[in-house]
Amino acid sequence: MASHVTAHETSEKEIPAPQTGAIWKTFWILLILTAIEFVIAFTLPANTLRVAIFSGMTIVKAFYIVGEFMHLKHEVKTLIWAVLIPTVFVVWLLVALIYEGGHLY
Question: Transmembrane stretches, by residue range (predicted)?
Fold first, then answer.
């Protein structure tokens, strides 16, 4: 009546299969976004449009990195909103302070 488990069965249960596909997907997405940023940096003149594009792309990359590497996209929506809403207000506060301080026209 003894239970018999082979070493092969035990090792399969202990070691999960590597998820290299997800890692490579993340790598390529971030590489493409960074390449687009470099193209914009060297083709557009230094003006407000370029700064706005860089800011937008930086926010997109930041959300993607937080979602992938900090596993926030796998959490419940309430936690995501609890992190996102204060962040938006802090960014809004910083923009308002810079504008009121006369550094952004």
Answer: 22-42, 48-67, 79-99
- Match 């999960």 to its residue by tokens: 16
3 φ, ψ to 5°? -85, 135
**Model confidence, pTM:** 0.59
Instruction: Give the end-to-end CA distance of the chain in Å, rounded to a whole number.
Output: 82
Following DSSP, what letter does each residue of 63-83 receive, concatenated?
Answer: HHHHHHHS-GGGS-HHHHHHH
* C-beta contacts of 61-68 below 8 A and 24+ residues apart: 61/30, 61/33, 61/34, 64/26, 64/29, 64/30, 64/33, 65/30, 68/26
DSSP character for 17? Answer: P
Q: Where are the domains of the chain?
A: 18-74, 75-105
Q: For 45-65, how does the pLDDT look when each residue is reduced to its tens digit (9 = 90+)? A: 888 888 888 888 888 898 888
Own/partner contacts of 13-18, CB < 8 Å, gap of 24 or more, are none
What pLDDT does residue 71 have?
Answer: 79
